[in-house]
Structures are given as C-alpha cells and as structure tokens.
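Memo to structure team: turn this sequence into structure tokens by end of day. - J.P.
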Amino acid sequence: MKTRGAVLNAMGVEPPYDRTKPLAIDEVELREPGRGEVLVRIAAAGLCHSDLSVINGDRPRPTPMLLGHEAAGIVEKLGEGVDSLAKGDHVVLVFVPSCGHCIPCAEGRPALCTAGAGSNTAGTLLGGQRRIFRGDQAINHHMGCSAFAQYAVVARNSLVKVDPELPLEEAALFGCAVLTGVGAVVNTAKVPMGATVAIVGLGGVGLAALLGAVASGASRIVAVDLAADKREFARTLGATDAFDAGVPNAIDAIRDATQGGVDFALEFAGSVKAMDLAYRVTRRGGTTVTAGLPPPNATFALPQTHLVAEERTVKGSYIGTCVPARDLPRYVALYRQGKLPVDKLLTHRLKLDDINAGFERLRVGQAIRQVVVF
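Reply from structure team:
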C-alpha cells in the first residue's frame, strides 16, 4: 500500500528547520505485515528530542529513515501468528520491542532487550525486516515504529493495547514522554512519599517526571531549567520551587533551599552540564538519575570518593525502567482518575506537512509536546 511519511534523507542539515526542511514528506510503499507484525493506522505521533537528535546527528542512525517513535493508532491488519490483537483495537507504540527470551527480558527488564536494541540500531523491525520502500530503495525504520506516517507496520511486541475511550492524540504521549518520565521517578528512582526531588530539564519528558513526582507524594519538587516560561509552567503542575539553571550560583541556591540537597535529582536535558548540576544538588546518601541522551561521545566525571564517603547512587534510566505492558495501562488509569494530567503537556497539534516547523519550534524550546494528528 502507499502512505505518506516524513523521511530523513541525511542527518546534520543546518537549522532553522522550518526553512531547510530536513524531513521530506514522501509517498512510500508500505509492504504487508509479516509474521508477528501488525499494520497500524497512525492517529497521532509526538515530536520528541530523540527524533530531533537523529535529525541533528547527535544520535547517529542509518538513513534514509522514516522517523517517529511516540505514537498511537488503530490496528488495521494482523500478520501471521498475531492472535492477541484484533482489527479496530487502539494501541500505543513502544520504541523498544522486546523479544521476551533474552536475559534482560527474562529478568523483567524489557527496555534493555538485546534483540530490540540491535534491530533499533540497524533500522529494522524486531525480526530484522524492512517494510518501507521508496521505489527500489529500502527505508530504515526508526526505533521499530516509523510513526510519522499515515500507516506503519510494526512488530506485535512494539504495541500495547489501550482503552478506546482514551483520546489517541493524548494516548500517543504515553509511549515515550510518560513511560520515560514517570517511569524514571517510579521505577528507577523509586521515589517514596515525602521525599524531596529535583527535576533538571523541563521538556516533555522532564515535565512528565514532575507529574510522576507529584503523584508519588514528593514533599518538595524543585524544577530546574534555563527557560523562565517552562519554570513557571512547572509550578502550575505542582513544582514547589523553580530555579534558573543558567545563573552562576544555581547549585548553591538549590542546596541552600533544600538544606544540603534533594533526596533524588533526575536529569532529562541530555547534557553534561545538566547532569553535573543534578549530581551536585543531590544530598549525601541521595540518588541521581539520568534519562537524558547526550551525544555518544559525551562523558561525565564525578569525584569517585563521593560514591563511598557519601554513599551516593548514580543510575541510568531507559524508557523509565518500564515494563510497558504493565506500566502503560497503570499510567493511563491514573490519568483517567485525574492523578496524572498528561493532557496538560500537549501544547501543539500539527499536520504532517508542518512537521519541520514543529521540529524548529522544539529545537528553540518553544513547545512542550507537539503531536502530528492524522
């Protein structure tokens, strides 16, 4: 079948993206789903910094690639062997498919699936296939999803069924921003009720983490970002304090305000400077979590004696250490109860043809979460 999608032909195109248009809106051929695969009609797909980092070359991926990894849609057709979904089911796409039998999967850590990581790096679906073509040219899949298109063929293991009453443009945010942000608080950090928390980096994922900290019962939530409007928005979502990361005394000011630092500091900006700030505002005995993705060559140095003498913990978090089939329905339930107001993060709705302008808006920090609505 034919479908329109946003194809990145080469990384590293210079901004501004609304003028240089790194994503080409092309008609491509989408081949039939194979065994263990599903054809999904995409309803909405979110613009995320992980997409932006492929566009600008910070996260190298094979090109040409049809981007998009945070999305929701409706099942249109089932490949051979798929009997746990039906046509018409509403689904959220998950950007690391899990094979179910490698060691991380067997340990209950599907976000670290060995096969899923390999296929995502190679630009294929979980089974190693490519289903997108432009003439005779194979187009790489992005994170097993390639959701900036009217239709997508994905592995069954990349899908989680959701309540059909949940608006799909809101459901899309659960596939990345919510799983990653809320999961970093709940699963990775395991923030207990009454703890003090700092959220460093107030993009869509960081603000989702802030919502998770509120839902977890954190007694004090410190929002840290360079942008004044994002700090003010964080206060409306439940932040008790807000600090400008760019001022010279930011670290001292946060430590003074929190009597020596917070119990948990979580970094979502994807920069070494942000990680350094998060680490330095963590109290003795506290935990620093990073879910940001800087360029692959970025390194972070820390005083090694702190790990012993101050019993510090530094942890990484990928997709919020989530088990998507378990966690995503839980987070949706909390949203439906008003305890996780994810809809407040949705700032822009776009047409596919406007996607380059959307990425420019994201690049300069003028949006929280934008979705392409099909």
